[in-house]
Each structure stands twice: as C-alpha cells, then as structure tokens.
Amino acid sequence: MATVPSAGPPDDLQSGQPALPKGLLLVSTPIGNLGDMTARARSALEQADVVLCEDTRHAGRLAAAFDIRAKLEPLHDHNEQSRIQSVLARLSAGNRIALISDAGTPVVSDPGYRLVRAAIAAELPVTAIPGANAAVTALILSGLPPQPFLFFGFSAPKRAARLAQFAKLRSAEQAGVSATLVFYEAPHRLLECLQDLCQIFGATRQSAVARELTKRFETVQRATLLELVSHYEQEKPRGEITIVVGPPGEEMPPDIDEYLRHLLPNHSVKDAVATVSAAIGVPRKTVYARALALMAEPTRL
Question: What number is the average pLDDT over the span 54-75?
C-alpha cells in the first residue's frame, strides 16, 4: 500500500530558521504595535555585533521591551556619510551589523540608503529582514486601487515647493500615468498638504488619511480631498500620518451643494465659494448662487 506523505508547508516556505548571514542586515521593526516584531527581526538584533539606529534612546526602549542587549550606535541623516567607511571596514572584518529606523522598514524615507549603496559597491553582503511598513499598511486599508502605486515619502515642507511637486505629478497623470499616490506627512502640516492636494488634484478625488497605524488610536478617514480638508479644519490631527490619494478616475461626481454644506458653517461665503469654484472647476457666479440658496434654507446647512 502506498504511503501518502503528510501535508507540509508550501514549497516556497521554509519551516526551519536558517542561520543569519554575516554582513549588513536591514531589519524592519514595529510601526507602533510591539506584537508586530517578527521572530527573525528579534534574532537579528540579538545576534548583531552592533545595531545602527536613528535614535539610541528610541532603539533602547525597543531593545528593552524584548530583553535584547544589543550594542546601539547612531546613524542618522547628519552623520551617515561620515560613518560609511568605518562601517564598511567592520563589515569587511566579518561583523554582522543591523540597521533599523525609528519605526518600520529602514531606508524607506529614513537614513541608510547611502550606506546600503556603499556596501553593495564594495561587494559586501546585504540582506533584509522584512516586516511592518506604514505606507503599505495605509495603502491596503485605504480601499483605493493597490497597484500600481507610487510612494513619495514626505512632501516638501514649504508650500511653493509642495505645489510644484504636486503639479508635476498631475502633469504625469495628464500624460497617462495612473497610480495611487502615497505620502507621509507631519500632523502640523496635514491640513495645508490636503488643501494643496485638493487644489492640484481636485476636490472630488477619493483619498484616505491613515493615522497611528497599528496603535491604540488607529483611524482611517476615507473621503474626497475636500471632505478631508473640511474634517481636519475642525479636528487637530496627532501622531504618525500617511495620506493615500486615489488615481484619476477615482473622483466622485462634483456636488456643489455637498461641498458648500461642508464649508459654509466655518468659512465666509467668499472663501467657501472660491474654494469650491477652484476645486471643481465651476464658475464662481454659479457657486455663489447656490451658496445664497443654501443660506436661505438654514436647516440644509
């Protein structure tokens, strides 16, 4: 009688834990929830000769949470270039060096890119321990098309540069590029960023703001850009924020009354009319007439 083999893991999965290689290890860490620390990430930090991190105090708290007694050394935007040669020398000597960011996947909108490029150029081993990433987490929670998507990290802090950045992206869309856009943003700049996105991409573009992902107060606001502007004019955001903007074709049909109802309670008629007119491309006279009609029916605002 033939023996039927027992069910095992899929061919593309390893049931064992292979020994960690020497070289530069790019180790992903939780973006907020300590439960997202993987077994391989913990092992990598435990076995590393040194852990390079953005902030030794922040990394120290992570290490303490998992009883990891790793040697921590800073590597951030201000010292990365000056540290590269010494790190390469240690890698050449056979050291195992882990690189982490304050949260999530290192190198992605964080220090480390120049070091990775230098290690590759020197033909030194580089490997990654995958894990949490805020951009991808926000993307899959947004309900917007997941592929293709373009990740841009933080938008420019100054408004003129930010508008220029967004205008280039809009020009790319008009030339045929269609992708979901993902940005990181600081809480104190969120409203300004949303206003600029609304101005360039239009009020009706479907979008999402993901905040404090994996943490206790995680929220995902899914709405049009104008609705998100209106929401965050009233609510001061806190925490780590990711913005997801849907591709062309994810717009809702413009509804002048709906947008005016969002804006009129907290804006002058002039400002509300100007915002809606610019956002959805309807003449100001038309929008102004609708505003007056709505104001004549207070129960509708």
Answer: 95
